[in-house]
Each structure stands twice: as C-alpha cells, then as structure tokens.
Amino acid sequence: MKNLLVAVGLTSLLSACAHHDDVRPSSDNQHYVIIKSSERGQGVKEALDQATHFCKQDKQSMFVVNESVTYQGEKTEHEFLSDKSTAEIITNAGTWLWVLGDGYVDDAGAIASIAGASAEHSLGKPYLINLSFRCGN
To answer: DSSP assignment of 51-91, as one string?
Structure first.
C-alpha cells in the first residue's frame, strides 16, 4: 500500500517536468500557450513554464506580451472553489487515515481518499489560460 503512494508520488513528479506541448509557435515571433487547468495559479505557472522552456531551447529569454485567465465552468466560480476545497479535505483526511490507520480505519481511509480524488477530478478544468509571448535576448 505504501509502495502505491510512492509510485503515485514519483509519477506526479516525473509528469511535472518542464515541456512545451501546448505552445503554438508563430513565424512572427509572437507565440501562444493555451492551457485548461483546475487551478488558476497552477495553470498560469504551467503556461509560463512552457513558454520559458520553449524559448530556452534556443537560448533566449521569454517575454510576456499578454496573459488572460477565463473561468468557463458550469457552476459559479465560488461554487467550484467550494466543491474543490471539500474534495481536497476528504482526500487529505482519507490519505492520512489510509497511511496511519489500522484495520478497518485504513480501509475506510483508502475509500475516502479515492472518493475525494475522484470527486475533485470530476470537477474538471474550468480555467482557460491564454498566454502570448516572444522570445529574445
């Protein structure tokens, strides 16, 4: 069970490596990154990281031209954030019970952890981040 947690953590770290799959290059040196994210700040960071990585491959610096974040969820943003917070609390509490519990407690913790993660995943990625940038020295 603890090996599973280590494997999931390692997978998360490896998938967080810098890349630029979402960069849309342009011949006029004004490139775009468009990302959907479940968190506003995390989405902006990912877009900036991808733009920076794209420019660094040519040993150039990245300069932001324009950045916009749009919420496009089915619920209001307040409802989405409230539901996301609740799911995170359930996942975290379940994980602690799963790791530290004994007998039926760790089984209940595993169920709560998985249910919370599933609920959070089902909320989707309502934030659309659109970043335009240039590369230069």
So the answer is: HHHHHHTTT-EEEEEEEEEEE--SS-HHHHHHHHHHHHHHH
